[in-house]
Design brief:
single chain; about 725 residues; alpha+beta; 3 domains; two-stranded antiparallel ribbon; cell membrane; Anoctamin; transmembrane helix; transmembrane
Length: about 725
């Protein structure tokens, strides 16, 4: 139906194209800065086209430009041109849609319009008894009145009498009118050569024939319009939605939908719903964090790590070859205090799609290569940090020495490098993904957006999460033991987790990436447009006594990028992945996401209301391809968190020790306890068994070390079952290499 409708509509427009070019009349500006009408004060401005006067250009080029403008303009719409008051080279063409044209295209686009008021009684709100309190969290009813509800039906010209038309000038809302105007302009042919037809305002914008095309804001965002017929919806949206003082208020979704269209309305409705759902997760996560912080000093196993008589006397094996030294377990005291909680031929299309898939796979392999490179960096710098940070000669780090461990220093620097690499690859791949999608020649705009969505998300999923998956499920799992360590690339000894586990490193990685991403996005979305507008206003400043019309004020704003909403969804979906996939290791993630989203809603609102031209309204029935992507992330999150608890954290070994090995017959404690867990979880290695390559160099200390201890978390259960021994004056069982 969609394709047939477009073909029929194109034929209608082609036959309406006049044989000779006609030019719209020019009028002087009438000094009404807030006017939304032609100079006659009757015909509403539905769209604005901006072009540069070609009087100084050569004749042939000028004639071509004028012919293209003229053929585009004469599509049954009425036009009026006005010269700029700031730059005499600029011409503003005001577009008006007459009633007959509106009716024609409302039927073509199947726009639903009211047929009669809704007389059905609505269900009373369960919060009506608390209205005296909840009213403060809703927009001001004096500014935003409740919309009247109607029964609607797709418009048909032949059945006008069935529609609820009180005023023809108000029957079609401004957003409907601008949407229909853009529909005409985007399909109007401007050049026909034989069987080749060129059409669309987009092509003319890309070719420089027109400099801009946009619908008008109805007023300034911070000042009410003085025009009688102006609804001042932009001013109301700013006051009750985009202004920072309204951050605690519910969003006026009906007015957002009415002013910006359904597509943007659905985005903010979804973002608001997602933010509400984060509230419960944030409460639970914050509770876990507070509980862990309050009880960190009472943790039995943490006390044993920090105790000079226990952790201070346990000598740990070196974590790299030759130059790394023995170290005391209590050097990781602070880390141990962190608690863990749970149009082409089919063949041609196949070729193009295959090339696109191959390109995507190449970039994914490039990401994996960068992860390997960062892993090699981890191994290389860990060697340096291990030889430097565990020496007693570093006086300048004395106040922070207990926090600056080799593992922590390696993790922080590697996370920062990983974030920089992620951002660089994102910028590069963004252009590649758009090029691939254009190369595939999708048939419709929906197909284009869905194809680009899949490519961008697949790439960013691997780009953002691969390092986190490595830390959560690969790091420290294949390290061997001191006599026969495992090497990466035959040269670098695989890195081990901190005795407190890898979760603290995973938390560090998530914190840096989430925080850095939020800061970077705000710079891109807010600061850059604001600076561009500031520079543009400075470069085009005029004497204060000059009156600037509404259309020229909007021209000084930034155009919203074609994929602006796409990037907003992508940002939130990537955040959703961080919140759900690794929440078991970082319970504060929902809290950070909630705080970020409370700002994100208002920042996005402020941005599109104050810094950008009014966008062309678009229809939408859902969030598109993002819905199955979110469902897939939610399903994957169940598996990843289960594996983090089972394989990455020490939760299961601790529970096994607490309920089984701390009491008879394996332990001599009368009650279940975590006492002795640290001693029990560390294996004993005879230093005489070191190979010549990995044996640490002798220090100047006279202390002779015959055995050292190594963390052997994965062999914990088998150690107790197959090699029970006692050591160190406790009933803890140890594994001997």
């Amino acid at each position: 139906m969609y394709d047939i409708m477009e073909e029929e509509e194109y034929e209608f427009q082609s036959t309406a194209l006049p044989d000779k070019p006609c030019f719209c009349p020019q009028e002087e500006f009438n000094d009404k800065p807030d006017s939304l009408f032609f100079n006659d004060g009757v015909r509403r401005i539905d769209f604005i086209l901006v072009y540069e006067d070609e009087d100084k250009k050569d004749f042939e080029k000028r004639h071509t430009f004028q012919r293209r403008k003229a053929s585009l303009m004469k599509m049954g719409i009425e036009l009026e041109a006005t010269r700029s008051v700031v730059d005499e080279k600029l011409m503003f063409v005001k577009v008006h849609m007459p009633w007959e044209v509106l009716c024609t295209y409302a039927e073509v686009l199947h726009i639903k319009l009211p047929i009669q008021p809704n007389d059905l009684s609505s269900r009373p709100s369960p919060w009506r008894f608390f209205s005296c309190i909840t009213k403060h969290f809703y927009p001001n009813e004096e500014l935003i009145t409740k919309e009247s509800e109607f029964f609607t039906a797709p418009f048909e010209k032949d059945r006008l009498e069935y529609f609820y038309i009180k005023d023809k000038d108000l029957f079609f809302t401004p957003s409907m009118r601008s949407r229909m105007a853009y529909y005409i302009l985007s399909r109007a042919p401007y050049e026909i050569r034989g069987h080749i037809k060129k059409f669309g305002i987009t092509k003319l914008l890309d070719g420089g024939v027109y400099k801009a095309a946009y619908p008008l804001h109805d007023c300034r965002f911070n000042v009410r319009s003085t025009e009688e017929d102006c609804p001042n919806e932009r001013f109301v949206l700013y006051e009750e939605w985009a202004h920072p003082k309204s951050f605690y208020k519910m969003q006026p979704l009906d007015l957002i939908r009415k002013y910006y269209g359904e597509k943007i309305g659905i985005y903010f409705a979804w973002l608001g719903f997602y933010t509400k759902m984060l509230a419960l997760a944030a409460v639970v996560g914050l509770g876990c964090f507070i509980y862990g912080y309050k009880t960190q000093e009472t943790s039995t196993w943490s006390k044993e790590v920090c105790d000079p008589e226990i952790g201070g006397k346990i000598v740990m094996c070196p974590q790299c070859d030759r130059f790394c030294k023995y170290w005391r377990l209590n050097s990781t005291c602070e880390a141990s205090k962190v608690k863990e909680y749970v149009p082409f031929t089919t063949c041609g299309r196949c070729v193009r799609v295959s090339i696109g898939i191959g390109t995507v796979l190449f970039w994914i392999l490039l990401i994996l290569a960068s992860i390997v490179a960062i892993t090699v960096y981890r191994l290389a710098v860990f060697f340096v940090f291990s030889t430097k940070l565990r020496t007693q000669e570093i006086k300048e780090l004395e106040p922070f020495k207990e926090y600056v461990t080799p593992q922590m220093a390696t993790s922080v620097t590697a996370s920062l490098i990983s974030f920089v690499v992620i951002m660089i690859l994102n910028i590069l791949y963004e252009r590649v993904a758009i090029w691939i999608t254009d190369f595939e020649l999708p048939r419709t705009k929906s197909e284009y957006e869905n194809s680009l969505t899949l490519k961008m998300f697949l790439f960013q999923f691997v780009n953002y999460y691969s390092s986190c998956f490595y830390i959560a499920f690969a790091k420290g799992k294949a390290v061997g033991y001191p006599k026969e360590p495992v090497y990466l690339l035959g040269k670098y000894r695989n890195e081990e987790c901190d005795p407190g586990g890898c979760l603290i490193e995973l938390t560090t990685q998530l914190s840096i990436i989430m925080g850095g991403k939020a800061i970077w996005n705000n710079i891109q979305e807010v600061l850059i447009p604001w600076v561009k507008n500031l520079i543009f206003r400075y470069c085009t400043r005029v004497p204060s006594q000059k009156v600037i019309p509404r259309w020229e004020q909007d021209y000084q704003l930034q155009p919203l990028p074609k994929l602006g909403l796409f990037y907003e969804y992508l940002e939130m979906v990537i955040q959703f992945g961080f919140v759900t996939l690794f929440v078991a290791s970082f319970p504060l993630a929902p809290v950070l996401a909630l705080v970020n989203n409370l700002f994100e809603i208002r920042v996005d609102a402020w941005k599109i209301t104050t810094q950008f031209r009014r966008v062309v309204p678009e229809k939408a029935q859902d969030i598109g391809a993002w819905q199955p992507i979110l469902q897939g992330i939610a399903i994957l999150a169940v598996a990843t968190n289960a594996m983090i608890i089972a394989f990455t954290s020490d939760m299961i070994p601790r529970l096994v020790y607490y309920w089984s090995f701390s009491v008879y017959p394996y332990g001599n404690h009368p009650n279940n306890t975590m006492e002795g867990y640290i001693n029990s979880s560390l294996s004993i290695f005879n230093t005489s068994d070191f190979s010549d390559f990995s044996k640490p160099e002798q220090s100047n200390s006279s202390l002779i070390i015959s055995t050292c201890r190594n963390h052997c978390r994965l062999l914990f259960v088998s150690a107790h079952v197959f090699k029970p021994e006692t050591s160190g004056g406790t009933n803890s069982s140890l594994l001997h290499y």
